[in-house]
Amino acid sequence: MFSKKMKNLVPYVPGEQPQDQGYIKLNTNENPYPPSPRIDKFLQTFNTKKLRLYPDPLFLELREAIAEKYKIKKDQVFIGNGSDEVLAFSFYAFFDRSRGKLMFPEFTYSFYPVYCDLFNINYQKIPLTTDFSIDIKNFLHNTESCGIILPNPNAPTGILLPLKKVRDLLDRYIDNRVIIIDEAYIDFGGESAVSLIDKYKNLLVIQTFSKSRSLAGIRIGFAMGDKALIDALFVVKDSFNSYPANTLSLEIAKLAISDIKYSDSVIKNIIKTREKLSDTLKHIGWNVLPSTANFVFAEKLGIAGEKIYLKLKEKGVLVRYFNKPGINNFIRITIGTEYEIDVLIKKIKACF
Q1: 292: burial class by Cβ within 10 Å (0-12, 13-18, 19+)?
Q2: Dihedral-angle region of residue 333 (phi above 0 means left; psi in -120 to 50 means alpha; beta otherwise)
Q3: What is the CATH number of the domain that holds 128?
Q4: Considering Cα of 249, then 250, then 252, then 253, what sign does the dihedral take?
């Protein structure tokens, strides 16, 4: 009953989503704080009669709100059902095995090779440096590549590639191949590459409402780039599903993007807690990579990452462990509330 292509797929494995409430959940990079209070007020008065109609297939109001926020044109904005869908459409639109291999970091978001397999794209994993940072020179050796995708900050390391380095990469790379900067975590300490999209017609910046705006549950992501790139994404979208984003999610996202004061306060709290956790772990002998995301990537020398993950799970705290050579001694810890991180620290000190 199954196609040959389906039999050969190796799917992405999401973090654990336990159905009970027995854990402190620090494993899937969700925001520990609620979304904008404007959304509560909106939901109390939302006219459900709107739900009998299809949503706007052009996402005009949300695209205008995003364009206003980032000081770009609405024609430079695309909306999708989560940034994962935006990534999928982008892989289909811009990367082709006939033009070479897609390049991305050796340790990075594990959906990238899944999409490559799904869309029959050859790829090449580019090694990180010994300190787990990205060296752009390593992406410039292959002149037969079909494109580049970089998370910035990278995941699961949390390490930021400064905007100057992004610009250097764009200056030195093939100008008729697309470079995607996947900025799911950029709001937690980095500078977005969206300021470069007018100069570099091959740059696509992808962001999400899931992280800094506490809206993982509504599944809204967006891309920003040259109009030609955005038009191509609409062609792919309308060849797959004309209405990927629902009416309620579009309205909620529009409210969230406009409440800058609230999102800034949430981001500030997360950064403060992240630095507290990093400093504490270093003080008790852990190796912690420098993070500008809403998580930290850390190891305790001499103790396997799986052992740390399992022990913390036994104690009621979920973190993320990656069973991959080179990073299998690390765990990734989502930044929770200050209380949750205090509990985590107490568990770590007691167990390790």
Answers
A1: buried
A2: beta
A3: 3.40.640.10
A4: positive
Q: Are residues 70 and 217 in the same domain?
A: yes
Cβ proximity of 223 and 86 under 8 Å: yes
Evaluate whether 113 touches 123 at the Cβ level (below 8 Å): yes
193 CA to centre of own chain: 14
Interior angle at CA 168, CA 165 and CA 169, nearest 5: 90
How many Cα neighbours within 13 Å face the side chain of 50?
13
The region of weakest confidence among 28-42, 140-154, 227-241 is 140-154
What's the DSSP call for residue 193? Answer: G
For 53-94, write each residue's pLDDT tens digit.
999 999 999 999 999 999 999 999 999 999 999 999 999 999
Helix (DSSP H) and strand (DSSP E) numbers for the chain? 11, 13
Q: Which pLDDT value is given to residue 21? A: 65
pLDDT at 63: 98
Query: Are 86 and 163 members of one domain?
Result: yes
Please tell me whether residues 79 and 185 are part of one structural domain: yes
Q: Strands, DSSP E only, in the chain?
A: 24-25, 77-80, 101-105, 123-126, 145-151, 178-182, 203-208, 221-225, 287-288, 295-299, 317-318, 320-321, 330-334
Give the Cα separation of 148 and 232 in Å (integer).
Answer: 17
Residues in the chain, overall count: 352
Reported as a single tens digit per residue, the pLDDT across 108-155 is 999 999 999 999 999 999 999 999 999 999 999 877 899 999 999 999
Q: From 85, 335, 61, select the one nearest 211 (Cα to Cα).
A: 335
Question: Residue 23: left (phi > 0), alpha (psi -120 to 50), or beta?
Answer: beta
Q: Which amino acid is at 190?
A: G
DSSP 78-103: EEESHHHHHHHHHHHHH--GGG-EEE
Regarding whether 44 and 113 lie in a shared domain, the answer is yes
Higher pLDDT, 125 or 12: 125
